[in-house]
UniProtKB/TrEMBL annotation, chains A, B:
<feature type="domain" description="SAICAR synthetase/ADE2 N-terminal">
    <location>
        <begin position="4"/>
        <end position="215"/>
    </location>
</feature>
<dbReference type="Pfam" id="PF01259">
    <property type="entry name" value="SAICAR_synt"/>
</dbReference>
<dbReference type="GO" id="GO:0005524">
    <property type="term" value="F:ATP binding"/>
</dbReference>
<keyword id="KW-0547">Nucleotide-binding</keyword>
<dbReference type="InterPro" id="IPR028923">
    <property type="entry name" value="SAICAR_synt/ADE2_N"/>
</dbReference>
<keyword id="KW-0436">Ligase</keyword>
<protein>
    <recommendedName>
        <fullName>phosphoribosylaminoimidazolesuccinocarboxamide synthase</fullName>
        <ecNumber>6.3.2.6</ecNumber>
    </recommendedName>
</protein>
<keyword id="KW-0067">ATP-binding</keyword>
<dbReference type="InterPro" id="IPR050089">
    <property type="entry name" value="SAICAR_synthetase"/>
</dbReference>
<dbReference type="GO" id="GO:0004639">
    <property type="term" value="F:phosphoribosylaminoimidazolesuccinocarboxamide synthase activity"/>
</dbReference>
<dbReference type="GO" id="GO:0006189">
    <property type="term" value="P:'de novo' IMP biosynthetic process"/>
</dbReference>
<keyword id="KW-0658">Purine biosynthesis</keyword>
<comment type="pathway">
    <text>Purine metabolism; IMP biosynthesis via de novo pathway; 5-amino-1-(5-phospho-D-ribosyl)imidazole-4-carboxamide from 5-amino-1-(5-phospho-D-ribosyl)imidazole-4-carboxylate: step 1/2.</text>
</comment>
Length: 226, 226
C-alpha cells in the first residue's frame, strides 16, 4: 500500500490489486475556523468528522449502486475510516460539479443582480475548475471542450448524472426533514471504456443543508441524517 | 431630444421619431490611466477618441449591413460624433458577449492552468453580466436561461452572430496586417418580433489587437485601420 496523494480531507493510497484506498481524516474545509464547503483550506479539525463523513458516503454510494448509478465505490470500513474504490482518472487537473436547488454561496455572489437569496434553482448544474490559485473559476461547456478537459458528449453525461445524484441526496435528506440547498461532486473516467462515474465522497462537507430555514453544520447534519 | 443615459464612453438621447442618438465621448475605459477594454471605469480622456471610435464603428456597422448581419445602426454623423440607432432592449440589465481568438485578459486569468498566453482559441464565445459591483461575472447558457435573461434559442442566435461578426472584424483587420485577439459586443432585441441585433459600437475600445506580436492601443489601432 503506497501513499499517492495527501488531500485536504483524506489521503489516497494505491493498493496492490490496482484499486485505491481512501483514508478519511478529521479535517474539514473552511476559513478561520468556520466550515465552508467551497473553501480551499482546512478550516478546522473535528473529532469524529472522518468517520461520520465516511458513514454518510457509504450510505449514499450504496444507495446509488442500488439505483444503477455508476460510482467508483467498492466497499468501506467504518472502524478504520477507509473506503476502497476503483481507479479513476479525473478530468484535466480536476473539476467540481455543483448542483443547486436554492441560490446561496458563490452563485449568489456572482448572480445576485438576478437572484434573491434562497430562491429555488431547479437542480441547476455548474462546473468549476479545481484551481486554488485562481479561486476555482466557473467554466462553460464550450470552454471545457475547447481546452480538451471534457468533450461535449461527456458534458451531457456529467450534467445528467449530477442531477440524478443530486436528486437522490435531496430525497434522502427530505425523509429526515432536511432540505438540500446545494451539493458538489467530483467525477472521473474509469475502465477501458472511460465510463464517467462519481468519485470522492458524498458527506456533510460537500453540501449545504437546512432544517426549518436554519443552516445545519456538516457534523450536525450527519448526526441528524444517520 | 432627451438625455436618457450617461455612459462611460457615450451618452444616449431619445429622438422624437422613436429612434436613439448616441453621442460619442473622448473618454475610454481603463485603470490608472492605462487602457483596458475590460475595465469598468473611465481610465483616461483622449482628444479625438470619440470621433475615431465612431469612424471605426460606422465602417463596421455598414460592412455588417452589406453582409446582411442585423444591427441597430441607422446612420452616423462623424463631425457631430453622433450615431442614430433603432430602439433595442438589452438582455436583463445588459450582457457583454466576448469572442476570443487568442488567450489573453480575463480568459487567461481564469483558465491559465489550461491555456498558455496567446494560444489560439477558435472564435470562442463567452458571456459576462454587466455588473460592476460583482466584477462582470461570466455566466453560462443554462444560468442565462434559468434566470430569465436569455432563452436557449436566443443563446444559439447570439453565439452564431458573435462568431460571424467577430470573423468580419478579424478579416477586415487582417487586411491591414493587424491581428484580432479578442473583441466584446453588446446585443439587444428590436422590433415586434424581438429580433436579436448587434448594438452599441465596434471600435478600438472593444477589442485587443496586435501587430507583429505587439499590442496596439485603441487610438493607434483606429489610426492604422482607417
Amino acid at each position: 500500500m503506497k501513499l499517492k496523494y495527501t488531500g485536504k480531507t483524506k489521503d489516497v493510497y494505491a493498493l496492490e490489486d490496482g484499486n485505491y484506498l481512501l483514508q478519511f481524516k478529521d479535517d474539514v474545509t473552511g476559513t478561520n475556523g468556520v466550515f465552508d464547503p467551497g473553501a480551499n483550506e482546512v478550516g478546522l479539525t473535528v473529532e469524529g468528522a472522518g468517520r461520520a463523513g465516511l458513514r454518510v458516503t457509504k450510505f449514499f454510494f450504496e444507495t446509488l449502486k442500488e439505483k444503477g448509478i455508476p460510482t467508483h465505490y467498492i466497499d468501506a470500513d467504518i472502524d478504520k475510516k477507509t473506503m476502497t474504490v476503483k481507479p479513476a482518472e479525473v478530468f484535466g487537473e480536476g473539476l467540481e460539479v455543483i448542483c443547486r436547488y436554492r441560490a446561496v454561496g458563490s452563485f449568489l455572489r456572482r448572480y445576485g443582480m438576478y437572484a434573491k437569496e434562497g430562491q429555488p434553482l431547479d437542480a441547476f448544474v455548474e462546473v468549476t475548475l479545481k484551481d486554488d490559485e485562481r479561486g476555482d473559476p466557473p467554466i462553460s461547456e464550450d470552454a471545457l471542450a475547447m481546452l480538451g478537459i471534457l468533450s461535449k458528449d461527456e458534458y451531457r453525461v456529467l450534467k445528467e448524472l449530477t442531477q440524478q445524484i443530486g436528486n437522490v441526496v435531496k430525497e434522502e435528506l427530505a425523509k429526515k426533514e432536511i432540505e438540500l440547498y446545494d451539493i458538489k461532486f467530483e467525477f472521473g473516467r474509469t475502465g477501458a471504456d472511460n465510463q464517467i462515474v462519481l468519485i470522492d465522497e458524498i458527506s456533510g462537507g460537500n453540501m449545504r443543508a437546512y432544517q426549518n430555514d436554519a443552516y445545519i453544520e456538516p457534523l450536525e447534519l450527519e448526526k441528524r441524517f444517520l
